[in-house]
Amino acid sequence: MGGNLPRVLAEARNSIRAMVPPGSRVLVACSGGADSLALAAAAAFLHGKGEILVGAVIVDHAMQPGSLQVAQKAAGQCRSLGLADVLLLGAKVEGHSEQSARSARYAAFEQAMAQTGAEYVLLGHTLDDQAEQVLLGLARGSGTLSLSGMPAARGPYLRPLLGLRRSEIEQICRHEGLGYWEDPTNTDPRYLRNRVRHELMPMFEKVLGAQVPAALARTAALARADAEYLDSLAGFMLEQALGDAGPEAREALCGLDLEGLRGMPEALRSRVLRMAVTRLGAPAPDFERLAALDLLVHGSKSAGPIELQGPVYATRLAGDRLQHGARARLHLDATALQRTQP
Prior knowledge:
It is a single chain. This protein is of the alpha/beta class. It has 14 helices and ten strands. It has helices at about 5-20, 35-50, 65-80, 100-115, 125-140, 145, 165-175, 190-210, 210-240, 245-250, 260, 265-280, 285-295, 335-340, and strands spanning about 25-30, 55-60, 85-90, 120, 155, 155-160, 255, 305, 315, 330-335. The strands form two sheets. Strands 3-2-1-4-6-5 form a six-stranded mixed β-sheet, with helices on both faces. A four-stranded antiparallel β-sheet has the order 7-10-9-8. Strand 2 (about 55-60), helix 3 (about 65-80) and strand 3 (about 85-90) form a beta-alpha-beta unit. Helix 2 (about 35-50) packs across helix 7, helix 5 (about 125-140) packs across helix 9 (about 210-240) and helix 9 packs across helix 12. It holds the Pfam family ATP_bind_3.
């Protein structure tokens, strides 16, 4: 540690200041890699100034040989930075998928917040991570939802470093004298993200210029602003589509009004249908299932059911106009799991 303060370190500190209210208790999620250690160093400065109270949570996934030693070293470096409440937690990962590890990690974060009273967890994702996420989202073909990348803030989880390049983050570690861990899985070509990072992104930068990652990150910010606005409208339109449904039907999202759905712009209708499905506990429907739902709304020959992932299916019902004056409904119900169990 020493020498002139790098611009990037000042930017990291100011980014945390902009996102975390003064006096808050936060935890830095630290893996021992360059990004999370740089984040810990920037947060530690604010902790030392008494602006916020900063601790750290280190999660050992036990998926690689020597993972506990890596976690212990990361915890030691966080303590050397002067952080309070440095927790090292084990995570039980079902299988070895990236998604399973992520779920276990976030469960450990929730445990750490409950244990320490922390209001926020700081995550060390960088501009490069965001650019890679946009490319992966583009490959999925899910529109602005995929192109919007990772949010800077979602609930208690904050990403202050999304405006900084990975190479800049490493400057912080060098300035602070922090030796960071290079995760060997980050070069494993079996993982699609690594191929994007090491093969696709360098080619993009060579052909289109070094500003490609920053341009992709800007695209994510613009797409997220659009998506959040459309989602807020979709939430209102979902309530409208429920119409005069009773409390039980409203809770189960039964009886969405077909006339109302058909009158919506496509960009809103697709979001309303996606929102209805996810509220019932199923994953967001993919393009094919969403197209099938839209066809059901517009009067396909079949009235369903359309099986969605998880415990959700959809059918189209004709209301009893004479007795109840009801309109035709798209009926969504979260009972498929129970219905199909032996």
